[in-house]
Amino acid sequence: MAPLAPFVPPHEVIGEGPHRVMAIHGWFSDRAAYAALLPHIDRRTFTYVMPDLRGYGTARDVPGEYTTSEAGRDLLALADHLGWQRFSLLGHSMGAAVAQRVLAAAPLRVRRLVGIAPVPASGAPMEGEQWELFASAAEHPENRRTIIDVTTGNRHPDVWLDLMVRHSVEHSVPQALRAWLDSWALEDFHEQISGSKLPVCVVVGGHDPALSAEVMRQTWLRWYPAARLVILPYAGHYPADESPLALIRIVEDFLAQDPE
């Protein structure tokens, strides 16, 4: 029997610049996670591809393991499909764990890495009520709302929170969402990336109590010697929505330092 063809995630390509960037969404969204950034990207310098991971958006009905390692393989298949030999990675939250799986599997293909409110390669273990809140969020949209509200500092209007939850529910599959949690929160593969000399930029929101600057110092900055940390004081866990202009300036200024 012939081996199954690699899965190429559905995706959107924006820009025509020579620096190629793969932007990976997080747990509660599909590729629309970056929608607020799109009007402001430098399309002459960069080409962005934004895929939908299995269980999300236009890949809602695609079955799979729903793990970061599987997603890493899928994204390398996407890079091959696009003819991208080398590219940079941009990942939000869970998407940053996926980005690190790509790096672990193909380190010579990655130019630079940006993690936005990023999950460390050691996972994000939780206990007790916190775990129950996250584990039941797949079936209970009100828990998604609570998580989004808490991780942005309880600062944003109800209309925005409702919009975020509605989009999450409409563009994800509960079974996949629940499986993804076990992978990004519980799997520890930091030994596969520790010591990488890749240029890395870690961006966190000052109002994110979960993936805070201190968490980054204990994880990302320890494992990536060339990592830098940037704190966005007016953002929480969703800087692309909360501070899009500040975020895209940080991202593209960092990526542009590699002139290849």
Automatic annotation (TrEMBL):
The keyword Transcription regulation does not apply. Keywords: Hydrolase. The keyword Ubl conjugation does not apply. One of its GO terms (cellular component) is membrane. It holds the Pfam family Abhydrolase_1. InterPro entries: AB_hydrolase_1 (IPR000073), AB_hydrolase_fold (IPR029058), AB_hydrolase_sf (IPR050266). Residues 21-242 form the AB hydrolase-1 domain. One of its GO terms (molecular function) is hydrolase activity. It comes from the Bacteria. This is Pimeloyl-ACP methyl ester carboxylesterase. It comes from Streptomyces zagrosensis. The lineage of its organism: Bacteria, Bacillati, Actinomycetota, Actinomycetes, Kitasatosporales.
